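Chapter summary example: a protein plus magnesium ion.
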Amino acid sequence: MPEQAQPDERALRVEIARLNKVIQALMNRAERNASVQGSDFNLFQTAITLEAQVRRRTEELEAARLENEKITRALRESENHLRLLIENAPVSIHEIGLDGRVISMSRAGLLMHDFKEEGEVRGTSYLDGVSAADRERIAKLLAEACADVASHFEFTASGPRRRIFKSCFVPIKNKQGGVEKLMGITEDITKRHEAEQKVRGYVAELTRTNSELKNLNARLLQVQSQLLQSEKMASIGMLAAGVAHEINNPIGYIKSNMQSLDKYIDDLLGVLNAYEQVEVKLPEHQEVFLELHNLKDRNGYEYEKQDILELLSESRQGLERVTKIVLDLKDFSRVESLDKWGLDDILKGIESTLNVISNELKYCCEVRKEYVPLPPVECVLPLLNQVFMNLLVNASQAIETKGVVTIRTGTAGDNVWIEIADTGKGIPPENLKSIFDPFFTTKPVGKGTGLGLSVSYSIIQQHHGRIEVESTPGTGSIFRVWLPIRQPVGNGVAVDGA
Ligand SMILES: Nc1ncnc2c1ncn2[C@@H]1O[C@H](COP(=O)(O)OP(=O)(O)OP(=O)(O)O)[C@@H](O)[C@H]1O
Ligand SMILES: [Mg+2]
């Protein structure tokens, strides 16, 4: 607006001067021609018209001057306002020439760059205020801004104190549209940065603590389930040991009685055979022998004589079996040695486990054994027995009517593997990730607690082994247990001295 008002004012002044000159010339002419009567009137008229014109123009000039003054005052006020704002803004507002040198800088900028007055910074390279590490990057942005590409960026300032600035380059253009200089606004974000870093630290710390808590929680669940299971095992073990002890006594004397009975019957049969041989040599006692024959026939003597031996042999076998079961029960539980490492025969463990649960298996499945002999494995066998029992019971429970459970073994390098495969209903893929979780069960209440696999998993982990599962719904599942033949140093036999 002032640019528009000024030419008007100038033009008016020029025209008024011109009119004044014309009036002056006319007055001079009037004086010179004072004696000439006819032209005086015309001259006078012209002078009056001109005077009126001058007055009007003068009034217009005055109005324009007043308007101009008003505009200039408003402009000055808004300029002052702007300067005040720039000077008091908490950010640096600065101008940079196309040569990268500072043209001006606000008070906050001077403070930020440790200058006392603007004179110290004016003409210096803007990049002097940027740390060596960031200089190349900012120089590139500066060059781009000079080519009319604005940018926002962060950098570390030069100087002994670590300060982080957030800034921008804004190209300022001239009337022709070319970039004339750059304007920049810089904010000191050191404190915010530090606070953000602290917050990031706290978040990382919290995340770590959280995951530690999660791990602890999982471990707690594991320990809790192990405790439950080992309590269960301990009580089964105690019960088994008690029963075994109780059965052991009668078995002891039945066994010794059987031995005596064997001998007595042998003796008795010997005596009877001797009688039978005498019988034919005493024809005078025919009647007595006839009666004896009748008695023998009535009682099925020949059959009984034969059967006695078979009965005795069967009883002996039965006794052997009971003795073995009692031994297996003791072997299986071995409560007193649940944490004793030893070099043990895994196949023996599987066999004693099979004996203990044979009742559970025999109605629903045929057990096939495809054993490859295994070397002695460093382990806590009663714990492994628990694993085999869990896997075998799971296998049998997965078979709905009748099926096959196959136990395979093998070695691979420094490891042995034991596989328990069933032709049961299989595991749906969505359950596969949960089956080792404590308390995960798909079995009805009372049939499963969901602890078998989680406990088995941690037992195998304690042995530095692993359990693999393959399952096809409708076809069956394979659980494969891998165990190292020797435990790493610090675990196992050497430590316990077992
Ligand atoms: N051989 C298998 N075939 C099909 N599903 C299986 C088999 N083994 C385990 N599962 C699934 O995994 C779940 C968890 O097994 P886990 O042995 O941990 O618990 P459970 O058998 O249900 O109960 P528990 O063993 O405590 O009596 C079972 O409920 C079953 O759904
Ligand atoms: Mg189970």
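Key point: Residues 390, 394-395, 398, 422, 424-427, 435, 440-443, 448-454, 477 surround adenosine-5'-triphosphate (ligand 1) (CB under 6 Å).
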